[in-house]
Specification:
Helix content: 25-40%
Shape: globular
Structural class: alpha+beta
Number of strands: 5
CATH topology: Aminopeptidase
């Protein structure tokens, strides 16, 4: 399933909305460092790949901005581990 992910910088998150619910991957930016803190998908959207699409869209955006990632969110960290093409974004702190 391909869902339309929206970057909502005023809320510091990437999001997907359907009629009743919203899934988010939120972050904080300091300089070129993107701190991903939380990914949340409502029960109604689970099992459809929404979280993966949120994170992939977010990481692709960070890469395009030449940013670095701190994966405080366990889902983002696991996604990067499973998708090593994003490993170059991980900042060493």
């Amino acid at each position: 399933m391909n869902v339309p992910i929206i970057h909502n910088p005023s809320e510091n998150r990437f999001e997907y909305r359907n009629a009743n619910d919203i899934a988010v991957c939120d972050y904080k930016v300091i300089g070129n460092m993107w701190y991903f803190n939380h990914t949340s998908v409502p029960d109604s959207m689970r099992g459809q790949g929404v979280a993966a699409q949120l994170v992939e869209t977010a990481l692709t955006y960070v890469d395009e901005q030449h940013g670095r990632v701190v994966a405080n969110c366990s889902y983002v960290a696991a996604y990067i581990k499973k998708n090593p093409n994003f490993a170059h974004l991980v900042a060493i702190e």
